[in-house]
Specification:
- The chain contains six helices and no strands.
- The chain is elongated and about 50 Å long.
- 29% of the residues are buried.
- With 160 residues, it is mainly α.
- Helix content is 86%, strand content 0%.
């Protein structure tokens, strides 16, 4: 039950980041830097922060929801890493280090999600682990990439 609630909160967080981020980006002259400055910490906090909390405090339910072993040290380490992404993303955003620092933590987070999505897909095929939380990771990662691509490309063009 708690995994479902956290999934809903992740979806609400990311959806809100996209909705308000695109509103910010397109209010007046298009400003992809302002858009990403708003979106990046919220997306990372919603996905990584809530996943880290889930992995640390609701480890049994999280592992069962994904069809993984319960109580492994790797699960704790992964949860700590996820929380680290969230804390650093919020810290960098609040510190005003700029878009390059924000993009750095975002790319690190996205590479984790991409490789995690591949891992989940392989697990689904190889081990026939068709739990919803296992098979959705590759697809939601692709959706996240699709949604962030436009402002990301525009910011990267301005940086060059």
């Amino acid at each position: 039950m708690i995994s479902k609630i956290l999934d809903i909160l992740r979806i609400i967080g990311v959806s809100s980041a996209f909705f308000f981020g695109y509103m910010i980006g397109f209010s007046g002259e298009y400003n992809p830097q302002a858009q990403l400055h708003f979106m990046i910490p919220i997306i990372i906090a919603a996905v990584a922060g809530l996943s880290g909390i889930e992995g640390l405090f609701f480890a049994k339910q999280a592992a069962e929801a994904k069809g993984y072993e319960v109580g492994s040290n790797y699960q704790r380490q992964s949860a700590i890493a996820m929380l680290s992404y969230a804390v650093v993303a919020v810290f960098v955003s609040l510190s005003g280090w700029g878009i390059v620092a924000e993009l750095t933590i975002f790319f690190a987070f996205m590479f984790f999600l991409i490789f995690s999505g591949i891992n989940h897909a392989v697990d689904a095929v190889k081990n026939k682990n068709y739990k919803w939380q296992n098979i959705n990771r590759p697809f939601i990662t692709l959706l996240l990439i699709a949604g962030i691509l436009y402002p990301l490309i525009n910011v990267l063009k301005k940086l060059n």
